[in-house]
Write a structure and sequence with these properties.
Chain A: Belongs to the MnmG family. Chain A: NAD-binding protein involved in the addition of a carboxymethylaminomethyl (cmnm) group at the wobble position (U34) of certain tRNAs, forming tRNA-cmnm(5)s(2)U34. Chain A: This is tRNA uridine 5-carboxymethylaminomethyl modification enzyme MnmG. The structure holds two protein chains of two kinds. Helix content of chain A is 37%, strand content 18%. By secondary structure, chain A is α+β, with helices and mostly antiparallel strands. In chain A, strands 1, 2, 6, 7, 8, 9 and 20 form a seven-stranded mixed sheet that branches. In chain A, strand 7 (123-129) and strand 8 form a beta hairpin. Chain A starts with a strand and ends with a helix. In chain A, 55% of the residues are buried. The model of chain A has no long low-confidence stretch (mean pLDDT 93). Chain B folds into two domains: 9-125, Probable tRNA modification gtpase trme, domain 1 (Gyrase A, domain 2, 2-Layer Sandwich); 127-301 and 376-437, Four Helix Bundle (Hemerythrin (Met), subunit A). Chain B is built from 15 helices and 13 strands. Chain B has helices at 31-38, 92-104, 114-121, 130-140, 145-151, 156-179, 190-211, 215-219, 233-241, 284-299, 314-325, 365-383, 387-414, 418-436, 441-451; strands at residues 9-12, 21-27, 39-40, 51-59, 62-72, 83-89, 108-109, 221-227, 259-265, 268-274, 302-308, 331-336, 354-356. A seven-stranded mixed sheet of chain B has the order 3-4-5-6-2-1-7. In chain B, a hairpin with a 2-residue loop joins strand 9 (259-265) and strand 10 (268-274). The radius of gyration of chain B is 28 Å and the shape is globular. The two termini of chain B are 37 Å apart. In chain B, 41% of the residues are buried. Classes of the chains: A alpha+beta, B alpha/beta.
């Protein structure tokens, strides 16, 4: 029934969809196996993409030629650039999505790619021969062969849903869980673990009183995610903000004795930064209210996502407590919040390519690696597919480094340090945060995507123009002199010290509250010059000049780090034969088997002295 | 971490402890050019490899020491890099001053075994030696952060831990507002943050001062000259100072007050304190002086007991020495009025640390100076042997932390965005981490999650 595929992607969530699309676009014959064709690209949790650090990841996925940005642009109902009051490295795009359109747009995108076949079934086993994966076996007993397999099982592996004292087997509300894969992988020698995450109740928007909440509008001039020519929104839906109160907390407390978390029925570790409402009340007892974001699930649906109210307390307790929230007095619930436990595989079992160390050509992406978040999943799917495609075509592995992309930070953290709780990206995880901006993801990555056959020529052309324009503008601003007479009025108006003699535009731009538009206002010639350029190029040049000294410092730091990355540990070293290493370092090095000295240096427990010792053993 | 060897490293190459000469070694691309910046003499950058040059090391206008510089131009050196060896006087103070000067100029203190490692990595040694080098590094660096902290004197270790906590808290506050801007948390206002930095900086300054390598050495080694009236204390002092400062008279007990003056011998500053004699007396003024003499002895780092060789019997001397020893200070015995030659010393055979001089005739003074210097080296370097490098390393790290915090303040002052401020804070954390152990992002996140209710 099936011929041999190049790559089989198991699972059609954010990781699976990106993986299938990327591999197929690069030229691989792909089979996408999902348990349910109707739930492709579900937003299982909140109907939103992006946010701080996550938005940057979506921009990077887009810059490489992935689809998440385009799909988000096509399905969003609100756009906000978060953190605009901070510097450019913190600007983070975030979209509220139409959940159903998001899913539909993804399915359409995948269907439009002729290299992708679909099969609805549950994969119960991977076929491994001589240490190499060569296909999958499904619950229908079908064997499908492929050169590489990417597992993106999400929360489905032995998923258990908890609502109060009830436990339901399932990977998502009303969807069954996947059995067999964990057990088989463990029998092959993999280590598995258990994680927990949760989701809040969904309510009926028609039953809410928005007049009691604060309205949160989208940006007046909405931007977008994709560097391609997708359209920004011309109308948007608002979100609302309301708060819990002590009455809500008291009611929730009545359910604590039935809480699967507090009673120890949930074994898996949940994310600290995404606690359930009961956890917040429990741990921060002195806080008398918690913020809730009321998010619409689409353009036309009345379904509402109560962001901040994640809970696994009994549904009646959730319901009673919700009704005490301002604006929720008459709320009707569509479905209660729940906690879900699922299997994951500690990601230290992976190489930087996301290929497993144990089984060749087998790749893991998404929550199976202990991450959380659509964005984190999507970028792993993309990188796994790129590397699977490269591998089966005997081409070089593609590993993004930590100063190049958040994606690089994420994967390096996973494979080097592993994770105990669901891993979410934060900007603080990136030591080169100032370099990894949402405005320059294309400059950083599109050429790479193009060389891989993933990003098309039009993307590359756009970036080339942007780079050229940016350099022209920056050169101009560095040369351009501004006269005191013309610029002082503007400076004074902005409470910036006036100048007494001519000053370069670039130097004025370096002042904290002076923007390029201000200077353009003072100088007609500058304004005229800028007219010929695109908004993005002007912004790019302006950022480069304004934050030059910080960018320079970061670049130097990044270069020093890169030198350590250049020390590749080629063959598998026998760390047990290096008595000069500390005991802990020896254990950790054995386990992680780092690919470079740089990676080794980031393993916790490996000291600078151990690195010195290692370098001596390596000879050079 | 700085393992790629494109930077220039510095360290004391000779063993720590007493020695007339210390050798400070630099290795790396800038070894010669940096030395040239602080060396007054020939232009070192124009000299051939394997040459020796006399000159002075200066910190700006301030003369630190007269030195001999040996040049080894890459690849003709032990490490195959540019290497400079500076031979200076073997004083802890001078060594520290010179190394600190180089640290300020941008060199880095060598890691344990790093010269050898560089030599190895640059192919100067064969692979069979790898094992030995690795062991060397490992054994030298067993003094891990924790151990190093334990070795520190006084409350330094506690203070530095406190500093770390404060800095982590501060960094967390900034990271909080960067990563969790959408959350319902209150951010620290900038004034509070500035106040916190001022506090941290004050602590740093305090630490840097208290750590100034051997305050004693820096301010001069307090050296008390004790002896019976008319043993010749003032004359001796005048010789050492080369000027007439103390009142010299033949009437016993004329030195009633303390006369202090500083003199540099072989680069070590001494603060000589001339005292009234120790003689039991009925004169009240003088009795007071005697009591103060005892106090001064207690405060001194070195005691010189001066006696008239002609009027002092060995028994008497022994008794005096026993008496002085109770204070627990190093004692140098100086027999004055050695006018009849060395044979006079024979009656004191068996006494340690004894030098014979004639103050009035300025005989054997260089010998005395040598004895004084070696007393200090023995005394000071023995109980501080390990900490000279460790402390310098700490000073360097604390200074880097301080500098990064200056940048933080500058950034806040300019109203620059927090992620830029955060990058300077990270530098501060990194520098401090060189003492306390690395402070990672996970530490910051841990701090945030434990203190703030984050997450939707």
């Amino acid at each position: 029934m099936f011929t041999e595929y190049d790559i089989i992607v198991v699972g059609a969530g954010h990781a699976g969809c990106e993986a299938a699309h990327a591999a197929a676009t690069m030229g691989s014959k792909v089979l996408l196996v999902t348990m349910n064709m109707n739930t492709i690209a579900q937003m299982s949790c909140n109907p939103a993409m992006g946010g701080v650090a996550k938005g940057q990841i979506v921009r990077e996925v887009d810059a490489l030629g992935g689809m998440s940005g385009i799909i988000t642009d096509k399905s969003m109902i609100q756009f906000r650039m978060l953190n605009l009051s901070k510097g450019p490295a913190m600007w983070s795009p975030r979209a509220q999505s139409d959940r159903m359109r998001f899913s539909e747009e993804w399915r359409t995108a995948l269907e439009n790619n002729l290299n992708i076949d679909f099969w609805q079934d549950m994969v119960s086993e991977v076929i491994v021969e001589n240490g190499r994966v060569c296909g999958v076996k499904t619950s229908m007993g079908i064997e499908i062969r492929a050169k590489a397999v990417i597992l993106t099982n999400g929360t489905f592996l032995n998923g258990i849903i908890h609502i109060g004292e009830k436990q339901l087997g399932g990977g998502r509300a009303a969807e069954r869980s996947a059995k067999g894969i964990t057990e088989q992988l463990v029998s092959l020698g993999f280590e598995s673990g258990r994680m927990k995450t949760g989701t809040p109740p969904r309510v009926d928007g028609r039953s809410l009183d928005y007049s009691k909440m604060e309205e949160q509008f989208g940006d007046a001039e909405p931007s977008k995610f994709s560097y391609t020519d997708t359209e920004p929104l011309n109308k948007q839906r608002s979100c609302y903000i309301t708060y819990t109160n002590s009455e809500v907390h008291e009611i929730l407390k009545t359910g604590f004795e039935k809480s699967p978390m507090f009673q120890g029925r949930i074994q898996g570790l949940g994310p600290r930064y995404c606690p359930s409402i009961e956890d917040k009340i429990n741990r921060f007892a002195d806080k008398d209210r918690h913020q809730l974001f009321i998010e619409p699930e689409g353009w036309s649906t009345v379904e509402i996502y109560v962001n901040g109210f994640s809970s696994s307390l009994p549904e009646d307790v959730q319901f009673k407590a919700l009704r005490k929230v301002a604006g929720f007095e008459n709320a009707k619930m569509f479905r209660p919040g729940y906690a879900i436990e699922y299997d994951f595989f500690p990601p230290t079992q992976l190489n930087h390519t996301l290929e497993t160390k144990l089984v060749e050509n087998l790749y893991f992406a998404g929550q199976i690696n202990g991450t959380t978040g659509y964005e984190e999943a999507a970028c792993q799917g993309l990188m796994a597919a790129i590397n699977a495609h490269q591998k089966i075509n005997e081409k070089e592995a593609i590993v993004l480094n930590r100063s190049e992309a958040y994606i690089g930070v994420l994967i390096d953290d996973l494979v080097t340090k592993g994770t105990d709780e669901p891993y979410r990206m934060f900007t603080s995880r990136a030591e080169h945060r100032i370099l990894l901006r949402q405005d320059n993801a294309d400059v950083r990555l599109t050429k790479k995507g193009y060389d891989l056959g993933l990003a098309d020529a039009s993307r590359l052309e756009k970036v080339a123009i942007k780079i050229k324009e940016t350099s022209e503008i920056a050169t101009y601003l560095r040369k351009k002199s501004m006269e005191p007479a013309e610029v002082n009025t503007v400076l004074l108006a902005l409470e910036s010290a006036p100048i007494s003699e001519k000053a370069k535009a670039a130097n004025l731009l370096k002042r904290p509250n002076i923007e390029i538009e201000h200077l353009a206002k003072a100088d007609a010639e500058l304004a005229k010059f800028l007219e010929q350029y695109g908004k993005e190029s002007i912004e790019q040049a302006s950022i480069e000049i304004k934050y030059e000294s910080y960018i320079e410092k970061e670049n130097q730091h990044a270069d020093r780090m890169k030198e350590l990355e250049n020390y590749v540990i080629k063959e598998r070293l026998d760390y047990t034969k290096m008595p000069a290493l500390s005991h802990e370092a020896r254990q950790k090095l054995l386990k992680i088997n780092p690919e470079t000295i740089g990676q080794a240096s980031r393993i916790s427990g490996v000291s600078p002295a151990d690195i010195s010792v290692l370098m001596v053993y390596l000879g050079k | 971490m700085n393992f790629p060897s494109n930077d220039t490293i510095v360290a004391l190459a000779t063993a720590q402890g007493p020695g007339a000469i210390a050798v400070i070694r630099l290795s790396g691309p800038k070894a010669i050019s940096l030395t040239n910046q602080v060396f007054k003499g020939k232009n070192l950058e124009k000299q051939a490899s394997h040459t020796l040059h006399f000159g002075t090391i200066r910190d700006g206008e301030r003369l630190i020491d007269e030195v001999l510089v040996s040049l080894f131009v890459a690849p003709h050196s032990y490490t195959k890099e540019n290497v400079v060896e500076i031979s200076c006087h073997g004083s802890e103070y001078i060594v520290a001053e010179i190394i600190k000067l180089f640290l300020r100029k941008g060199t880095r203190l060598a890691e344990a075994g790093e010269f050898t490692k560089r030599a190895f990595l640059n192919g100067q040694m064969d692979l069979a030696q790898a094992e030995a080098v690795a062991d060397l590094i490992a054994s030298n660096s067993r003094m891990s952060h924790e151990v190093a902290m334990n070795q520190m004197r006084g409350g330094f270790s506690a203070e530095i831990k406190n500093l770390r906590t404060q800095l982590v808290h501060f960094a967390s506050m900034i990271e909080l507002e960067l990563d969790f801007a959408e959350e319902d948390v209150e951010f620290a206002d900038r004034t509070a943050l500035k106040t916190l930095i001022y506090r941290i900086q004050e602590l740093l300054r305090h630490l840097l001062q208290s750590f100034e390598l051997g305050n004693v050495l820096k301010n001069g080694v307090p050296t008390v000259i004790v002896g019976k009236p008319n043993a010749g204390k003032s004359t001796l002092l005048n010789i050492l100072l080369n000027e007439e400062k103390a009142i010299v008279s033949d009437i016993p007990g004329t030195t009633r007050d303390f006369i202090e003056d500083e003199v540099s011998i072989e680069g070590i500053r001494f603060r000589f304190i001339d005292t009234a004699g120790l003689r039991e007396t009925e004169d009240k003024v003088e009795a007071l002086g005697v009591e103060r003499t005892r106090q001064k002895v207690a405060e001194a780092a070195l005691v010189i007991y001066l006696f008239d060789i002609n009027t002092t019997s060995p028994e008497e001397l022994k008794a005096e020495v026993e008496d002085l020893k109770t204070v627990g200070k190093p004692i140098l015995l100086v027999a004055n009025k050695l006018d009849a030659g060395q044979d006079q010393l024979k009656k004191f055979a068996g006494m340690e640390n004894l030098v014979g001089i004639s103050a009035s005739q300025k005989l054997h003074i260089p010998k005395l100076k040598n004895a004084i210097v070696s007393q200090v080296k023995t005394a000071n370097l023995q109980d501080r042997s390990q900490t000279i490098v460790t402390s310098l390393r700490h000073v360097a790290s604390l200074e880097k932390t301080y500098k990064a915090l200056e940048d933080v303040l500058l950034g806040i002052g300019q109203g620059i965005s927090s992620e830029m401020v955060a990058s300077d804070i990270r530098r501060a954390l990194h520098a401090l981490g060189e003492i306390t152990g690395e402070i990672t992002t996970d530490d910051l996140l841990e701090n945030i999650f434990s203190k703030f209710c984050i997450g939707k």
